[in-house]
């Protein structure tokens, strides 16, 4: 009888060992990496969801949009299925969140035998280098627009006495162009280099800067330039020559500026200014404008001819071509529009009708 008891106990112990050996190990945490392959510049990074675990694996992955339809910064969604490997199961009491590297969990379902999770991912791209850099006009450097790019960073380079070009100033522009006329003012040659960048911290999460590209050409000041350097910016812009701040009208590389002696010799910026009984308009950079300009919703025509009144507001009937069309610009201050503003969709004082484009019919 004693031998039978011993045998039964031995069998029970053996069964317990067998049960223990076949028990599944519990997985208490799950992490996934959205692994990026950085493709060539201008091509969106390819992405593969990965896990390095020895206890679970990704068994299915589907995308909300085909890779060919991705756009940088536009959210894409992966539907992932994660399953435990043999001998393992997910501990639903311990796993509350799924750790996603380079992505964001949008939704999840956790079971001991399977996890399904929606992962949001933001496609990224390295911006291409600017190409086809040349001077469209004497001082206007231009280049081809870079795909996805809304901002360019530019280093203004000035030649020193040794013939080396050194960084003088770094600026940012939204258009693929830079006007160097305000930098070529001291007799030194001026050039630049440019790269495509993200426009803000949000874009920098998915747009990576291009390489710097040199213009490989330079400009210099014209004889009409008042030699010196600009100082300040915006409404505090001034110009200093060897004797100090300049005042009044100054021609710098073909552009006219007005440094107001009644305003600490600061440049007229984004405003009208009257001089010698004529009105002139200056843009955001302090440059006197010519031709058609739109200000506060009205169109004006500023004399483009160098006849002593270049830039002055014209009034009355004008034609910008040899055979028209003809436009009427408000004469004097006693009228329905500001002085010099173009008439549209109304009759002129002498009885003609002008259409929505201001053209006489």
What would you say this structure looks like, in words?
The chain is mostly beta strands and 361 residues long. It is built from one helix and 32 strands. β11 and β12 form a beta hairpin. The protein starts with a helix and ends in a 7-residue tail after the last strand. 24% of the residues are buried.
User: What gap, in angstroms, lies between the N and C termini?
Assistant: 125 Å
Q: If you compute it from the alpha carbons, what radius of gyration comes out, rounded to the nearest whole angstrom?
A: 35 Å
Q: How confident is the prediction overall: mean pLDDT?
A: 92
Question: From the structure provided, what is the oligomeric state, counting identical versus distinct chains?
Answer: single chain
What is the general shape?
elongated
Largest sheet: 4 strands, antiparallel
Strand content: 35-45%
Helical coverage, percent range: under 10%
Judged by helices, strands and strand pairing, the structural class is mainly beta
Number of helices: 1
Task: Kindly state the number of beta strands.
Answer: 32
Uncertain runs are 17-21
Strand order of the largest sheet: 4-5-9-8
In summary, what is this structure?
The chain has 361 residues and is mostly beta strands. The protein is built from one helix and 32 strands.
Task: Provide the descriptors you would attach to this structure in a database record.
361 residues, mainly beta, four-stranded antiparallel sheet
